[in-house]
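Regression test case RT-17, inverse folding.

Input:
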């Protein structure tokens, strides 16, 4: 319920009668607009300024609102590097993918270029950047491995790209699974391997979820590294099954 309330607040952009708050806002002549360079890379540098409307200077009390309550201008995200906050979601590994998808669609409908066709160039640019950011965030939140990596980073436990795992038994098991995959063209064997690997992925997702819930980030990280191996094999199997026309 709490989450839903937050989302409701998120979309309650103004007290006006217009549900989507797209009315008005023409002729933004204020020089404040010129203050900001509008590129994706500059979202982060705008963070401290994002607590005020870039156009009219009004203090943004609810920084999750997309639009300024006073002048209706689209605002830059306050924390562009936090994908959970962009979606008004709790910073938790276990998320409702249907809810994520619904929020994504709503956000993209608010940020659709058509909605800004009569707006200033500045707002067009903010909306385009915002929309790209939402796509990127969605792609990261949607995939459990990417979501876990992002969450670890937010919690100050960044995973290095080349981080290895110190577990010889596990490494041996993965090597054997990959060899099994390399050595077969038999469709049924591939399907069996696919099921087996997907089960492993499901189990590890549960373990990662438990670790995050317990706040055990070291262990979460350990499982996330393991997950990378299973995910990599999963990608290889899927690619082969696609080649064979077994899956889309
Ligand atoms: Zn404003």
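Golden output:
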């Amino acid at each position: 319920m709490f989450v839903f309330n937050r989302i409701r607040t998120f979309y309650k952009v103004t007290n006006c009668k217009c549900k989507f708050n797209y009315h008005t806002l023409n002729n933004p002549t204020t020089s404040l607009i010129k203050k900001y360079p509008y590129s994706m890379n500059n979202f982060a540098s705008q963070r401290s300024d994002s607590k005020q409307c870039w156009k009219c200077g009004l203090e943004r009390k609810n920084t999750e609102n997309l639009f300024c309550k006073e002048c209706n201008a689209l605002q830059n995200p306050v924390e562009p590097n936090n994908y959970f906050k962009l979606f008004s979601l709790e910073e938790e590994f276990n998320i409702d993918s249907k809810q994520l998808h619904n929020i994504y669609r709503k956000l993209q409908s608010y940020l659709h270029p058509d909605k800004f066709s009569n707006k200033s160039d500045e707002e067009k640019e903010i909306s385009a950047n915002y929309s790209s950011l939402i796509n990127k965030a969605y792609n990261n939140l949607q995939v459990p491995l990417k979501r876990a990596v992002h969450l670890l980073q937010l919690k100050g436990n960044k995973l290095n790209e080349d981080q290895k795992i110190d577990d010889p038994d596990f490494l041996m098991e993965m090597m054997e699974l990959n060899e099994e995959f390399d050595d077969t063209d038999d469709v049924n064997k591939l399907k069996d391997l696919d099921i087996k690997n997907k089960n492993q992925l499901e189990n590890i997702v549960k373990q990662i979820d438990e670790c995050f819930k317990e706040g055990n980030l070291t262990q979460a990280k350990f499982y996330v590294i393991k997950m990378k191996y299973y995910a990599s094999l999963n990608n290889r199997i899927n690619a082969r099954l696609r080649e064979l026309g077994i899956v889309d």
